[in-house]
């Protein structure tokens, strides 16, 4: 099946109110164009350099999401380019976003990345540090948090469901609180292999790459990676 058919099939599976994010990292603009023609307007990139390059050479009405780990020295390139940063995962990054966006009096929209599986190989805020982190966000003037993002450990459906369920509980708990800079609008969880389970457990945004674009990888220049 082609990209358009893949998107159409996924859209028939996901309920209204769940946003589909096309994970376009490493894919050439020709692939993104097919997705765009099929109605996609939200695209997710892992690397700042690739996001910036694509944003400058693609349709202006596209919303670019940074879903990969964000290094502090790359924040400055995202001003006026990024719609949503999914990977707000440390105090250092928060401080840098506040400083960089503050200099030009702009606001960065972000999701708190929680390390729900407590994996040493992954970044993210641990559950027990969440409220301390939120207190720091509340002191910012140029960062608005719109929800939560998780990348769960690899596992079977039962394990996936457990992590998604716990994340949803945190999301709902935060929803009951009143914050200045934080609202729980977006719960970003679920990828190609587990998005239906994630939706079952309350995800409002699924990040799908392979399920849309297929397995073949390209570098940012559009050349095939063998």
UniProtKB/TrEMBL annotation:
Signal peptide annotation: none
GO molecular function: pyridoxal phosphate binding
Keywords per UniProt: Pyridoxal phosphate
Domain (Alanine racemase N-terminal) ranges: 3-216
InterPro entries per the UniProt record, alphabetical: Ala_racemase_N, PLP-binding_barrel, PyrdxlP_homeostasis
Residues bearing the modification N6-(pyridoxal phosphate)lysine: 25
Swiss-Prot/TrEMBL cofactor(s): pyridoxal 5'-phosphate
UniProt cross-references to HAMAP family, sorted A to Z: PLP_homeostasis
Family: Belongs to the pyridoxal phosphate-binding protein YggS/PROSC family.
Protein purpose: Pyridoxal 5'-phosphate (PLP)-binding protein, which is involved in PLP homeostasis.
Stored PANTHER family: PROLINE SYNTHETASE CO-TRANSCRIBED BACTERIAL HOMOLOG PROTEIN (PTHR10146), PYRIDOXAL PHOSPHATE HOMEOSTASIS PROTEIN (PTHR10146:SF14)
Protein name, per record: Pyridoxal phosphate homeostasis protein
Organism field: Clostridium saccharobutylicum DSM 13864
């Amino acid at each position: 099946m082609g990209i358009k058919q893949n998107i159409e099939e996924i859209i028939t599976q996901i309920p209204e109110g769940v946003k589909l994010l096309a994970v376009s990292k490493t894919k050439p603009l020709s692939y993104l164009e097919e997705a765009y023609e099929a109605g996609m307007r939200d695209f997710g990139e892992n690397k700042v350099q690739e996001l910036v390059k694509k944003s400058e050479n693609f349709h202006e009405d596209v919303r670019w999401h940074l879903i990969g780990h964000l290094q502090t020295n790359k924040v400055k390139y995202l001003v006026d380019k990024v719609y949503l940063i999914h990977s707000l995962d440390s105090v250092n990054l928060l401080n840098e976003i506040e400083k960089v966006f503050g200099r030009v009096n702009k606001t960065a929209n972000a999701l708190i990345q929680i390390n729900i599986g407590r994996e040493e190989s992954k970044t993210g805020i641990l559950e027990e540090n969440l409220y301390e982190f939120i207190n720091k966000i509340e002191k910012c003037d140029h960062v608005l948090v719109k929800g939560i993002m998780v990348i769960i450990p690899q596992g079977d459906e039962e394990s996936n469901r457990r992590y998604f369920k716990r994340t949803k509980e945190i999301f709902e708990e935060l929803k009951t609180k009143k914050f200045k800079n934080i609202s729980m609008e977006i719960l970003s969880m679920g990828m190609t292999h587990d998005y239906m389970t994630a939706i079952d457990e309350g995800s409002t945004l699924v990040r799908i790459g392979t399920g849309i674009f297929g397995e073949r990888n390209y570098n940012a220049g559009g050349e095939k990676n063998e």
